[in-house]
Amino acid sequence: MYECAVQGLNVKQLMPPYLGVELSPEDLKTGVSFASGATGYDPLTPVIVSVITLDQQIEYFHEYRKRLVGVVGEEETARIIDGALFVVCAGTDDIANTYFTTPFRSVEYDIPSYVDLLVSGAAKLLDQVAALGARRIGFVGLPPIGCVPSQRTLGGGPHRRCEEKRNYAAKLFNSRMEEVIAAKTNPATTRMVYVDIYTILQELVENGDKYGFTETTRGCCGTGTIEVTGLCDARFVDICDNVSNHVFFDSYHPTQRAYKIIVDYIFDNYLQFLLA
C-alpha cells in the first residue's frame, strides 16, 4: 500500500525500509518506512511474533532525524519534517492473532475492554509522533478483519463466511479512534485525519465483480485459505495464474491491484485533508 501511495504522490517509486538497506541522502530526504509487519498497539503482539515494537520504531525515528541533520542541517531537517506526511497503520494483528488466535488476551479481556487497550496504545503513539514534530498524520483504521481469507478459515465455519466478532472488534476500534483523533487534532498545530479502509475493502469483498475480481474469499497462493507471507514462496507453493483476478494475494494481504483501488479511494476521500 505504501508503494502505491508514494507513487501516487510522485515522491518516488518505492518507500525504502529504514533498516536492512543502505539509505542514500535522497532516501533520507524523501522518506522511509519504520514499519514492522505484524506489530501492534498491544505491547504483547510484537513479543508473540518477534517483530519491532512501536516504541522501538519511535527510537528509530530519533536516530533517523539525527542522520538527516547530518545530511541537510538542522534548519532543513525541521522544514522537511514539518512538511512531511506521517502514516500510522497497525492493529490488525492485535485482533486477528493476539486476541482471537492465541489464548493470552481473550481470557483476560472481553472485546470492548481489549479494544480499550488498543485505543490507549494507539493514542499514545499519536502523541509520540506529534511530539516528534509531525504536523500531518494519517491514521489508517482497521479493515473488515473477519472477511480476510485466513480469518474466514479460522472462525467462519465450514462455509468460511465472514467472522462477525472480528469485524465487530474492528468497527468498535475504528469508531473509538475517530473520536480520539477528532479530540486530538488541531489544524493550527497538528492535523490528524482518520482514514477509513474498512468500507472500501468490504466493498471489494462483497462486490468484487464490479471491479473485475472473480475471487474474493481466497488468496492467490496455495490453497488461498491459510497460507501467508513466507508460506507463499513460489518455490514451494503454486501461485494462481492471474493474480489481478484476486482481491487477496495470500490469506491476509490484498493483491497489488486491490491495494491500488484502496489507495485511490484514500486519495479521493482524504488527501485534500491530509495535505491542506
Automatic annotation (TrEMBL):
<dbReference type="InterPro" id="IPR035669">
    <property type="entry name" value="SGNH_plant_lipase-like"/>
</dbReference>
<protein>
    <submittedName>
        <fullName>Os03g0859100 protein</fullName>
    </submittedName>
</protein>
<dbReference type="InterPro" id="IPR001087">
    <property type="entry name" value="GDSL"/>
</dbReference>
<dbReference type="InterPro" id="IPR050592">
    <property type="entry name" value="GDSL_lipolytic_enzyme"/>
</dbReference>
<dbReference type="Pfam" id="PF00657">
    <property type="entry name" value="Lipase_GDSL"/>
</dbReference>
<dbReference type="InterPro" id="IPR036514">
    <property type="entry name" value="SGNH_hydro_sf"/>
</dbReference>
<dbReference type="GO" id="GO:0016788">
    <property type="term" value="F:hydrolase activity, acting on ester bonds"/>
</dbReference>
<comment type="similarity">
    <text>Belongs to the 'GDSL' lipolytic enzyme family.</text>
</comment>
